[in-house]
Amino acid sequence: MSHSIYSGPVFEMARQQFKTVADHLDIPELDRDRLLYPKRAIAVSCPIHRDDGRTEVFQGYRVQHHLTLGPTKGGTRFAPSVDVGEVAALAVWMSWKCALAGLPYGGAKGGITVDPYTLSPRELEALSRRYMQEMIPFVGPHTDVMAPDMGTNEQVMAWFMDTYSMYQGQTINEIVTGKPVSAGGTLGRREATGRGVAYLVGRALDHLGIEAGCATAIVQGFGNVGLVAALALTERGVKILGVSDHTAAYYDPAGLNVAELQRYAARRGHLAGFSTQGLIDAADLLVQRCDILVPAAIEQVITGDNASKLKCRILAEGANGPTTPEADLILQQRAAEIFVLPDILCNAGGVIVSYFEWVQDLQRLFWEEAEVFDRLYRILERSFQQVIARAKRDRISHRMAAMAIGVNVVQSAKQTRGLFP
């Protein structure tokens, strides 16, 4: 596909990753575009009344990668960086993630180009509802199921669900996941991604013969994923040496009090100003010595410039696409030193429990929290074992193994179904 609307560094990264795995799998050139390029991309204008009386128009997107295995599934982010290329890349990664976990979904992603922190609560509600209103012709419980992402949360999902339900004339809980429990959400969804990261870190520690009680960690990103992962690692006995968000980074070789940081961030909305001690440059934080490094914020933070300087034993990718292809080449050379938990495995807990929420909503039958996490850990365990076995069998990196499994599943399903004439 020579002329494509999908461009930018993040989509180029997804395309490069796919090319590498397609070469490894010997996928014919003629079959590759159908596997890589999204089925559908939607761009919408979202006008809202600002509190000062102005009308402002925001740009919204939704990309549905493939519907071969079932409806598409993916988050909706409100961030200044959102463009169709970034959204498409995230949708592609979501496809491989769902396929690796064995979920009956294709990948999707959506978003609005906006800094949500510049909106009042009323403006945020107006924009959320307008975006869903514009998406109604293209989404549905068996077509595309939304979820939260950067800049959105349970409340935004509740507004999405209410807007869609009002249009349908009945309550359709299953149109979105990541909702409040009071609106048809599932117990455990908010913590699922971070708890999943901590579970897989535990499995990697076991694999390497490292005691959790003797291990140290640095967590980049203190949003939902990073915070929950830090708390869950602390519960396992891991000492947290460093944390950061978009406003500040802290490092203390004696260990940080994550609960105190959590309370401060809950009050202030960020980490800046927590302390004058332990402040460190955010880029330097990533290369401090630790057993576990968890990038849990944005894409492309482990790069060709810093990958050779990492001093961790386990790289647990809580974020989507935190490691560039250039960094990947370096990490492959350091495979004996650094055990990589690739993003499509490491952060799959969120979409797995979103799947559970969707199933519960469809059945109108809800599970206890213990059942949610028991099922989550069983799926993560199976995926972990598959990735380790594939990497060992084919002598490839963990990322290549995870991607190969995911791409194989989608490729096989597309071949089996054939091409509609």
UniProtKB/TrEMBL annotation:
Single GO biological process annotation from the record: L-glutamate catabolic process
GO MF: glutamate dehydrogenase (NAD+) activity; nucleotide binding
Top-rank lineage group of the source organism: Bacteria
Pfam families, per database record: ELFV_dehydrog, ELFV_dehydrog_N
Sites where the protein binds NAD(+): T193, N224
Family named by the database record: Belongs to the Glu/Leu/Phe/Val dehydrogenases family.
Protein's name according to its UniProt entry: Glutamate dehydrogenase
